[in-house]
UniProtKB/TrEMBL annotation:
Similarity section: Belongs to the TatC family.
A Pfam family hit: TatC
Protein name: Sec-independent protein translocase protein TatC
Record InterPro entries: TatC
Keyword Cell membrane annotated: yes
PANTHER family: SEC-INDEPENDENT PROTEIN TRANSLOCASE PROTEIN TATC (PTHR30371), SEC-INDEPENDENT PROTEIN TRANSLOCASE PROTEIN TATC, CHLOROPLASTIC-RELATED (PTHR30371:SF0)
Length: 273
């Protein structure tokens, strides 16, 4: 049966269409998750437990910088003073399953974004639909950059601070596997989604909920929110929060320019009508 025109579709038809797009996205995530499940050694030994090794690139770079400026730091240690342990019968298998699913989400993200675009694109003008490929590429690129930023910056800073923090020498840190993986996962995925801010602002501007003037007016409030957000996804030290806040503030400024661009195009189109 031929697909109905968007103007002929009822509310239930839209829900049915959305349901199939969601199903396709979930199937893609599960397929990618199965691939991640098979490559268990690479996913865990190289990726998940990579930031636990002092040979991790971030620690080496920060150690070299600290040595150059003559500052004592924990980045130059031989190993972290904690071990990762499993305390439940199904803990490791559960960690394997859920880590594979989240890895599947990261791998399949471009297809998930594609399904999102396929759902909303029928409601756009023809010239707007022509830019679908660019939208998918930019959204995916921002997400992957954010994930890498979270993995190589936020995660090692968090592990270094929390893994070496102690209130007494009588206490040894024995970290549960679920707690460790949760930190790596949340730091990476949260950063990935935060880096989608320009895309979010683009659509909010398109539908009239956000304007460049609004973004400029509330820039100070945005700064406070960014600092709070940085404090949530990073350890409670000023250096880590500043490192995370800087790219988010840059993204916010880029979002203002994007909002200006959208408004300018809308005004130009209105003049020709």
């Amino acid at each position: 049966m031929a697909k109905k025109n968007i103007n002929e579709m009822s509310f239930l038809d839209h829900l049915e269409d959305l349901r199939w797009h969601i199903i396709r996205a979930i199937v893609a995530i599960l397929i990618a998750g199965v691939v991640a499940f098979i490559f268990k050694g690479f996913i865990f030994e190289t990726i998940i437990f990579g930031p636990k090794q002092m040979s991790f690139p971030t620690y080496r770079i920060l150690c070299d910088i600290s040595t150059f400026v003559g500052v004592d730091t924990t980045f130059c240690a031989d190993e972290f003073p904690f071990i990762i342990q499993n305390r439940t019968m199904g803990g490791q298998f559960s960690a394997h399953i859920w880590t594979s699913i989240y890895a599947g989400l990261v791998i399949a993200f471009p297809f998930v974004i594609y399904q999102f675009w396929k759902f909303i694109s029928p409601g756009l003008h023809e010239n707007e639909r022509k830019h679908s490929r660019g939208f998918i590429i930019i959204a995916s690129l921002l997400f992957f950059i954010g994930v890498l930023f979270g993995y190589y910056i936020v995660t090692p800073l968090s592990i270094n601070f929390l893994g070496t923090y102690t209130v007494s020498q009588q206490i040894s840190n024995e970290i549960d596997i679920s707690s460790y993986i949760s930190l790596v996962r949340s730091s990476s995925l949260a950063s990935g989604f935060i880096f989608e801010l320009p895309i979010l602002i683009y659509f909010l501007t398109k539908i009239g909920l956000v304007t460049p003037e609004f973004l400029k007016k509330y820039r100070k409030f945005a700064l406070v929110i960014v600092l709070i957000l940085s404090a949530i996804i990073t350890p409670p030290d000023i250096t880590s929060q500043v490192i995370v806040a800087i790219p988010i503030l840059i993204l916010y400024q880029v979002s203002i320019y994007i909002s200006k661009f959208v408004v300018r195009k809308q005004n130009k189109k209105a003049k020709h009508v």
